[in-house]
Protein: Diaminopimelate decarboxylase
Organism: Flavobacterium flevense
Amino acid sequence: MQSKDLLQLAEQFGSPLYVYDAEKIKSQYNRLTKAFSKVEKLRINYAMKALSNVSILQLLRELGSCLDAVSIQEVQLGLHAGYSPDQIFFTPNGVSLEEIEEVHALGVQINIDNLSILEQFGTKHPTVPVCIRINPHVMAGGNENISVGHIDSKFGISVHQLPHLVRIVENTNMNIVGIHMHTGSDILDIEVFLYAAEILFDAARNFKNLEFLDFGSGFKVPYKKDDIETDIEELGKKLSKRFNAFCDEYGKELTLIFEPGKFLVSEAGYFLAKVNVVKQTTSTVFAGIDSGFNHLIRPMFYGSQHHIENISNPKGKERFYSVVGYICETDTFASNRRIQEIAEGDILCFRNAGAYCYSMSSNYNSRYKPAEVLWINGEGHLIRAHETFEDLLKNQIPLPESVVNQ
């Protein structure tokens, strides 16, 4: 997308505003499938927690993607977006048996990540196809909050508990059709990924009726110019060869599954915000925008860096700014960042705003959530309206005056 297109959309739909480029989503999807073209059976389950707008789900469905859902609500959104139950994979963590039963009743593939639920579900439903999430105890990911495969993680069944796991499966005569792992997000070293894959292969040998192996995702995307990223092509070459060899050893052509979220939508996203005030203090120049971590929490939550550019003054001389929001506590997007000279009223563009940005937004400080626009075929389509005061009140129930006045 061009800066002029983004400026036009900000003028048309207002700010703050999320914009997603359909062509970038398509190119990332095609890049991933091409990297693993040597695998006979490949399935991509989009991790919809990254960005769950129904229009985005529809776009990915048309590309051939399936879904990875982590809640009953995400499952229902997927069904609403036109996915069939067999195209949705349910990978929750710490949910109740009741929620798992509810998802099972919809005909969706269940992935179980703890021994207690595994035994309860297997005892009641021994013939239902089940996937098991293994914790490989491999530390990977760009931040401790997104590293989910290490020994202290709440996710998955420890690979060291395999004997216990196998005993439960044998006692219940469960139908185990898949093994799953996910080590974390922002993985750079593909050798770490391949090492974890070997642990998954070893675990798979304990089960004779598998149909697929799910390797999760966590591929890193570049967040700034010349930033490093996961070498998908190299990973595709190495893991495809190893996976095909394992299928030969196993005696069956298994399906290779990935569940990318950030990889597919992160770079497609732009967050646009207007500068309310430029404030000079004794040591800092602040650019205060019409947004805050209620709309984009990743810099505060993960320490993540989103490249920021002043698309209202793209050729301006760069100066140092701290970009801050309007939330009533520390609310910093960038500290002492070189950005083209900023004036009040300018539109700042945050890159890599497609994944875990709108989906983690809130109404903190009773602020409205922004609109979302999909840029497709050279046009901007509103796919979520800007919230209004009525939206804030929608589910609130005022006390009767008789109670208040007591």
In short: The domain at 22-264 is CATH 3.20.20.10 (TIM Barrel). DSSP finds 13 helices and 18 strands in the chain. The radius of gyration is 23 Å.
